[in-house]
């Protein structure tokens, strides 16, 4: 049965930086278990949308509800509670270079769950690493990992808090075609296993085709089109269709 509960509702959100109007009244709804891809040229507002969504930026106008709470009026403690239910995978993996894989994962886990016993931390680290197939990398430093391995560890770190929503910002950037597909398939399998909703910002159309129930195209701060990969590939709008060539 299809999910009927929105985990994210963005209504008429606008955001400007000085005279630069980056978002111009966008609307996005994400349902439980749904995977949304957002594509668009550089500077179209994709990353700003994600930052507004988690309260790293404040929208100038509009409403952003996450798990039913309007974060534009949320307290600091409410924002932290919401963020504890969201996992992030950034463009570069965003691992701390001075920490081993074990320490990177433990740092994230303790930040979200301060009362965990050491053996619980260890068990959750191993579970997260097993989910991405990298148990043997537990004591390696980020500098010893390939680009694909760094992305896998970044995904493990996003998964370790057992999030209900995953946010990906260019997760396959800088990877070769085969590794990009492996990372995308890994993201999909873990999401399906955990029934996690996701939003992915990407320029990688092969990943978009694999990963999204729904694709939205941002143009000049507005949602220009939305639909499945197949629907948008056949769009009558030449600009929208240009992404799929």
From TrEMBL:
<keyword id="KW-0067">ATP-binding</keyword>
<dbReference type="InterPro" id="IPR017871">
    <property type="entry name" value="ABC_transporter-like_CS"/>
</dbReference>
<dbReference type="GO" id="GO:0005524">
    <property type="term" value="F:ATP binding"/>
</dbReference>
<keyword id="KW-0547">Nucleotide-binding</keyword>
<dbReference type="Pfam" id="PF00005">
    <property type="entry name" value="ABC_tran"/>
</dbReference>
<feature type="domain" description="ABC transporter">
    <location>
        <begin position="8"/>
        <end position="245"/>
    </location>
</feature>
<dbReference type="GO" id="GO:0016887">
    <property type="term" value="F:ATP hydrolysis activity"/>
</dbReference>
<keyword id="KW-0813">Transport</keyword>
<protein>
    <submittedName>
        <fullName>ATP-binding cassette domain-containing protein</fullName>
    </submittedName>
</protein>
<dbReference type="InterPro" id="IPR003593">
    <property type="entry name" value="AAA+_ATPase"/>
</dbReference>
<dbReference type="InterPro" id="IPR003439">
    <property type="entry name" value="ABC_transporter-like_ATP-bd"/>
</dbReference>
<dbReference type="InterPro" id="IPR027417">
    <property type="entry name" value="P-loop_NTPase"/>
</dbReference>
């Amino acid at each position: 049965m299809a999910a009927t509960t929105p985990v994210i509702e963005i209504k008429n959100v606008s955001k400007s930086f000085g005279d630069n109007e980056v978002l111009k009244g966008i609307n996005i709804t994400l349902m439980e278990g749904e995977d949304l891809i957002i594509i668009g040229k550089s500077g179209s507002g994709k990353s700003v949308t994600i930052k507004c969504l988690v309260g790293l930026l404040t929208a100038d106008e509009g409403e952003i509800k996450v798990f039913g709470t309007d974060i534009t009026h949320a307290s600091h403690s409410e924002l932290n509670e919401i963020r504890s239910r969201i996992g992030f995978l950034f463009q570069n993996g965003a691992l701390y270079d001075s920490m081993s894989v074990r320490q990177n994962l433990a740092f994230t886990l303790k930040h979200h769950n301060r009362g965990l016993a050491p053996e619980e931390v260890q068990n959750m680290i191993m579970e997260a690493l097993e989910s991405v197939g990298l148990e043997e990398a537990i004591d390696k430093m980020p500098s010893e990992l390939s680009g694909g391995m760094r992305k896998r560890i970044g995904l493990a770190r996003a998964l370790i808090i057992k999030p209900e929503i995953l946010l990906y910002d260019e997760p396959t950037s800088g990877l070769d075609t085969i590794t990009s597909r492996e990372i995308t398939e890994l993201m999909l399998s873990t999401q399906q296993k955990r029934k996690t909703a996701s939003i992915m910002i990407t320029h990688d159309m092969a990943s978009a085709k694999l990963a999204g129930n729904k694709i939205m195209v941002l143009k000049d701060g507005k949602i220009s089109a939305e639909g499945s990969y197949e629907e948008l590939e056949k769009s009558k709008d030449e600009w929208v269709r240009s992404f799929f060539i």
